[in-house]
């Protein structure tokens, strides 16, 4: 009986004749050495666990207490056994066992005598042999490891070439009958009438799966997966129509059972028992069982056992998926932390010191990395403040924000006019076709005489607090990244000593409380009128209460003090 679970160019250089002869001799020498290594590598061919007259059971191993046995059978690259005595030794071990529980593992290519796959399989049967159900019933756990030991190129760096050689070998062996014949003989020995208990489980991995894949009814397996239905054929000889069921005829399969593995339903609470998967639940794979022997009608107990195995297998697969998803999420969070650290370093702002103004800024991201940034650059033209908000959140917004910051910074230090800077940024965004991404930007330049030039690209209107009153300069333009031919203009206003310029992103005005109310412009103006930058953030925190931010919040405050000469610091 087989059990099978499926889860879904360079120019020429002049060289004088003498040099050519030297190079030619060196090349010949190197080629000879490489060829010798190649031949030596290919010579590594033969069974790793050959039996001899002195050690007739060298291919069988296990602990001294005999709780399990591991037999190894090695095939060559043409599909025949390299040492037929390995099969004989395995059969003898099985024949001596009164209650054999047989695990036949068709792995594929065996790389060396202490292959990690051999060790993992042995660890598996060692674990199974220690189960109370095994020790209490005196079950003889036997593992048979079937692998292919073919010509192998052991030259370093040629693993890719040998992979395709191994794949061809796997397909060759899978198409032969000797491996299947050996498996059949092993299973029949385990099913001897004299056995008090017998069970045989076939496992296929890597290219070994090709062997198992050639022995099952793919038509029934595919039908079960597509229709999410069970197929139970206890005697195919009674079936009137086996058209399309070529594997059943070719391998004389009499019993074929296929049960879909359905995704487990979520358990409501810890105290309630998880319900059985509904017939309409998502199909994750299938439990396939076949035999060359006809079976009587499946009893209720056998049917329950099959469904229990299918349910447990589905749970194991789902748990494995959840573990993989959790690991992927952990790696993603780790990558985000690294990205956040890099972004913070890239966007760290060194506040320039100028005699005519004092500048402060703060950013709060609603995620690990965000699309808000601010910067300050002092040049001969004056102190320039940049505040931008890229649409969206997370990684994509952070990448564009970093690019945007670099572009604006380099052009500011080059002394370009503000309107030309935003025009260049807009052209970059639209030419790159980065999807429905845009950015609101405000760039404000303050001179020592208090002249404020700003260009607002769809951003929140700036606030100028003067003599206890709040003014909102209303000149604006389109955000960058929307229209390739957009025109941008700047505007001016005059600051007086003591005036404050406050710039914010829309994450401030759109901060919500538990009732869903926005912080809005009115509360912003009140907070800016009566408080500093830190007091603005305190007002936002008080308003939101415990409600988390749903967008990045950035506030920049400039306090203009007096007229004086500009000292350029970049």
Provide keyphrases for this structure.
Phosphatase 2c, domain 1, 5-stranded antiparallel sheet, 15 helices, disordered C terminus
List the helices and strands and how they pair.
Layout: E1 2-7, H1 17-43, E2 60-61, E3 68-75, H2 84-96, E4 100-109, H3 116-129, H4 132-137, E5 140-148, H5 159-175, H6 178-190, E6 199-204, H7 208-213, H8 218-227, E7 231-233, H9 246-250, E8 255-262, E9 283-291, H10 300-346, E10 357-364, E11 372-379, E12 382-390, H11 394-413, H12 418-431, E13 439-446, E14 451-457, E15 463-466, E16 469-471, E17 491-494, E18 500-504, H13 506-509, H14 520-530, H15 533-544, E19 553-560
Parallel strand pairs: 3-5, 4-5, 4-6
Antiparallel strand pairs: 1-9, 2-3, 7-8, 8-9, 10-19, 11-12, 12-13, 13-14, 14-17, 15-16, 15-18, 18-19
Helix pairs in contact: 2-6, 11-12, 14-15
Q: What share of residues are in beta strands? A: 15-25%
Rg is 37 Å
Number of helices: 15
Helix content: 25-40%
Number of strands: 19
Tell me the overall shape. Answer: elongated
Structural class: alpha+beta
């Amino acid at each position: 009986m087989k059990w099978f679970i499926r889860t879904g160019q360079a120019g020429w250089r002049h060289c004088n004749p003498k040099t050519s002869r030297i190079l030619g001799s060196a090349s010949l020498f190197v080629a000879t050495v490489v060829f010798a290594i190649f031949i030596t590598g290919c010579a590594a061919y033969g069974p790793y666990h050959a039996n001899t007259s002195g050690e007739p059971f060298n291919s069988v191993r296990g602990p001294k207490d005999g709780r399990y046995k591991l037999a190894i059978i090695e095939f060559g690259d043409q599909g025949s056994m390299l040492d037929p005595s390995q099969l004989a030794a395995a059969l003898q071990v099985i024949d001596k066992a009164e209650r054999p529980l047989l695990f036949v593992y068709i792995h594929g290519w065996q790389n060396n005598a202490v292959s990690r796959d051999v060790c993992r399989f042995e660890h598996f049967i060692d674990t199974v042999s220690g189960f109370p159900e095994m020790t209490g019933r005196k079950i003889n756990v036997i593992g048979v490891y079937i692998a292919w030991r073919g010509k192998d190129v052991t030259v370093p760096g040629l693993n890719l070439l040998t992979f395709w050689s191994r794949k061809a070998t796997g397909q060759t062996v899978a198409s032969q009958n000797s491996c299947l014949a050996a498996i059949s003989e092993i299973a029949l020995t385990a099913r001897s009438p004299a056995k008090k208990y017998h069970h045989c489980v076939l496992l296929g991995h890597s290219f070994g799966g090709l062997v198992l894949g050639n022995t099952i009814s793919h038509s029934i397996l595919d039908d079960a997966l597509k229709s999410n239905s069970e197929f139970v054929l206890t005697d195919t000889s009674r079936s009137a129509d086996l058209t399309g069921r070529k594997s059943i005829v070719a391998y004389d399969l009499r019993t074929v059972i296929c049960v879909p593995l359905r995704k487990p339903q979520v358990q409501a609470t810890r105290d309630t028992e998880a319900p059985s998967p509904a017939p309409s639940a998502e199909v994750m794979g299938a439990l396939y069982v076949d035999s060359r022997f006809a079976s009587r009608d499946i009893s209720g107990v056998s049917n329950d056992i099959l469904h229990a195995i299918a349910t447990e297998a589905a749970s194991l697969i789902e748990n494995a998926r959840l573990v993989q998803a959790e690991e992927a999420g952990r790696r993603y969070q780790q990558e985000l932390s690294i990205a956040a650290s890099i972004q913070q370093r890239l966007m760290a702002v060194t506040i320039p010191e100028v005699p005519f103004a004092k500048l402060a800024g703060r950013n709060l991201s609603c995620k690990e990395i965000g699309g808000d940034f601010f910067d300050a650059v002092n040049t001969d033209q004056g102190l320039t403040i940049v505040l931008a908000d890229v649409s969206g959140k997370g990684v994509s917004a952070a990448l564009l924000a970093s690019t945007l910051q670099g572009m604006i910074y380099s052009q500011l230090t080059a002394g370009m006019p503000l309107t030309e800077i935003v025009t260049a940024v807009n052209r970059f965004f639209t030419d790159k076709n980065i999807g429905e991404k845009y950015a609101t930007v405000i760039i404000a330049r303050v001179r020592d005489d208090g002249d404020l030039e700003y260009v607002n690209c769809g951003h929140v209107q700036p606030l100028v607090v003067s003599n206890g009153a709040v003014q909102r300069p209303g000149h604006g333009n389109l955000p960058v990244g929307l229209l390739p031919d957009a025109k941008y203009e700047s505007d001016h206003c005059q600051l007086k000593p003591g005036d404050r310029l406050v710039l914010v992103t829309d994450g401030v005005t759109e901060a919500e409380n538990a009732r869903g109310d926005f912080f809005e412009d009115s509360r912003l103006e009140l907070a800016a009128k009566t408080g500093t930058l830190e007091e603005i953030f305190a007002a936002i925190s008080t308003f939101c209460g415990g409600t988390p931010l749903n967008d990045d919040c950035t506030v920049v405050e400039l306090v203009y003090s007096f007229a004086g000469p500009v000292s350029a610091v970049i």
